[in-house]
Amino acid sequence: MLIVADENIPLLNAFFGDIGEIRRVSGRTMSAIDVRDADVLLVRSVTRVNRELLEDSSVRFVGTTTIGTDHIDLGWLEENGIRFSAAPGCNANSVVEYVLSVLSLYAERKVLNDWSQLTVGIVGAGNVGSELAEKLDRLGFSVKLCDPPRAERERNLTFVSLDEVLACDVVTLHTPLTRDSAHPTLQMIGRRELDLLTSKQLLINTGRGEVIDGAALSERLSQADAPLVALDVWEQEPRINPELVGKTWLATPHIAGYSLEGKVQGTEMIYQAVSRFLGLPARKKAGQFLPEPALSKVSFTSAADEQAAIRIALRACYDPRQDDARLRHIMGVPASQERGVAFDRLRKDYPVRRECSSLKVQLKGTSKSLHDSFRAIGFKLKI
Q: Which part of the chain is the D-isomer specific 2-hydroxyacid dehydrogenase NAD-binding domain (predicted)?
């Protein structure tokens, strides 16, 4: 049994070492020669899995350790009897915590005493959007959801139009990339939509870069009254537009879902799928491989300001400004090819980032409101 896998998938040996031989290759440059004699192929979103890659190979199972599938030709796999599995929701909480950290930075920039004064519009109510909406609701935010496909299927839920979402203080995008559907998301945010946003608003994209028309966005950001923009995903990755990076308020290298917990859960979900395909017992769990976090506990007393305490704890786990600085640094590389290599290196060599659940928060004499907020975000509490 030969398993060909993207070299950046974590814990390959731990999960798959006793199933077969593992051959690690670069996901970005993976070729038909690399996979020709493989039985199982494991990829991430940087690998296009289609006829060109797999024709005449011995691959019978393809797994992607990501939530998206727009890099997979699902029709061709089905036509050729190749089993497929993705990892929906594996890193949803990681992306949610990324957005919460960005919101905390934005509230600080606007000098808000209470970050829940911000209204948040969420486009895409899948695993990430739904979890984000639930956490924001528990934190006291006013939230509006836009998801036309779900609105058609689930009439009992309240969804609003895209224009209503675009009127919120913060607009955050969590859609897959679709082209040939009743509600395509390719360049869904174009000139008309961008013109509706003002300097009093923040646009966040952690879904797919092509959901926003990059040329229109660059043009809009050069105009007066342009919104602030936080981008984690980009058109033409890894060779992204340095001019657009320079115009954004916050820029990160497609790492919103890169918490250790999220990445390892993706590996576990595909391990389970491979085990089912081969008829093997799936005895391994992600939790048994997670190391002790570098920071395990913080403590707040009755003197703590609630908003400050939330900011401190959130940023102790993750501060997106560090990733922003790293990305802007590599934009100084003159050649597009070299910038692409540097972009991929930022992701390959990404430092360990733990989720809020890894941090125990000790509260001494603090308010019930603060307790509720920490629980809503996902911290472990010690009262």
A: 111-256
